[in-house]
Amino acid sequence: MANMTSYLPQNEGFLQYWLLLLSVVSIGNSVQSYLTTSYTRRVYSAPKTTVTPLHSRTFGTYTALAAIIRLYAAYNITDPMLYQLALWTYIVALGHFYSEWLIFGTARWGKGLAGPVIISVGSLAWMVSQWRMYVR
Question: pTM of the entire structure?
């Protein structure tokens, strides 16, 4: 078991483990976005909204990019540039989800949209509140 923990981020606190967990989950989400549109349709579920395979793959590509940035931040959480980049991934995600919901009307509030919004808001708040603990 000691060998397995050597692969985890080595700084104090729990934020880097959270970023690692979300990175792994997001990579899984990216893969499923390439394989099917069913999960993407849960987010973009407003009436008269069509989710195409291209849209799903584009969403999966952004999610993979965000996951990679967050993964690098998890292992280098004291680096101010990576920390800021990870923060920006949540800001961009929130901007996207809110605009699709409130401006473009392609998403509607429900469990498909609530999950990503709650994760983004919570992660963003946690990262902002912990800046001084991690960034050196």
Answer: 0.91
